[in-house]
TrEMBL record:
It is found in: Cytoplasm. GO terms for cellular component: cytosol. This is Uridylate kinase. UMP binds at residues 54, 74, 135-142. InterPro entries: AceGlu_kinase-like_sf, Asp/Glu/Uridylate_kinase, Uridylate_kinase, Uridylate_kinase_bac. Inhibited by UTP. It catalyses: UMP + ATP = UDP + ADP. ATP binds at residues 12-15, 55, 59, 162-163, 168, 171. It comes from Bradyrhizobium lablabi. The keyword Kinase applies. Catalyzes the reversible phosphorylation of UMP to UDP. Belongs to the UMP kinase family. It holds the Pfam family AA_kinase. Transmembrane segments: none annotated.
């Protein structure tokens, strides 16, 4: 088996994906399958941290469009990411692997506060670390959170697990002629306004020299394949 390309990564998971075939909520078989993939990746000898979106429960932008202020809507979305982290943490531990949720908010009855030292400690102990609560600030996406946390904890790459197998020139589900890219620079991704990740995340990755690998989470084992350098995705770097 090929050695992993990276030794410490942040994996960004879509909250919507946790809903499975449902339009809302948490689909337990989907959570269990993702937990299996994360544990298999961890067993490669990779230190794994995870950032999850909250769109399967609350999307701050959508809530604010219905009359709630944007800061309040985004805070609701950040709390939704905590629910997803706790669900995934429980699934990982139920399968016999150690995990720990760290929160961007002070909520001692629920989880420990994120600090760089806490993240380093738990990763070194061999735990899968789940990073909830977004950045702790409104107006920032969990894509940006993933890049920020990766830079903070010294990760070597951000793995963006999504519902398409890379970055395309347009939505491949709507435009059959959309071109798929094997590799892009951060600047090209920003200039192209590709919607797979927001521009702030790409800009921060460029500033911190962090590669982002965009790939599909649909196939079991896809995280491990990316880590071994055999997976199918788009590398955004340089």
């Amino acid at each position: 088996m090929a050695e992993p390309v990276y030794r410490r990564v942040v994996i960004k998971l879509s909250g919507e994906y946790l809903a499975g075939s449902q339009s809302f909520g948490i689909d337990q078989p989907t959570v269990d399958r993702i937990a299996d993939d994360l544990i298999a990746a961890h067993k490669l000898g990779v230190e794994v941290a995870v950032v999850i979106g909250g769109g399967n429960i609350v999307r701050g932008v959508e809530v604010s469009s219905r009359g709630v202020s944007r800061p309040t809507g985004d805070t609701m979305g950040m709390l939704a990411t905590m629910m997803n982290c706790l669900a995934l943490e429980a699934a990982i531990e139920r399968k016999g692997a150690p995990a720990r949720t760290l929160s961007a908010f002070v909520m001692p009855e629920i989880s420990e506060l994120f600090t760089r030292s806490a993240a380093h400690k738990y990763l070194a102990e061999g735990r899968i670390v789940l990073l909830g609560g977004g950045t702790g600030n409104p107006f920032f996406t969990t894509d940006t959170t993933a890049v920020l946390r990766a830079a903070e904890i010294g990760a070597q790459a951000v793995l963006k697990a999504t519902n398409v197998d890379g970055v395309y020139s347009a939505d491949p589900k709507k435009d059959p002629s959309a071109k798929r890219f094997d590799r892009l620079t951060h600047s090209q991704a920003i200039a192209g306004d590709y919607k797979v990740m927001d521009a702030t995340a790409f800009a921060l990755a460029r500033e911190t020299s962090l590669p982002i690998i965009v790939f599909s989470i649909a196939e079991p084992g896809s995280i491990g394949a990316i880590l071994r350098g055999t997976g199918h995705g788009t590398v955004v770097a340089g």
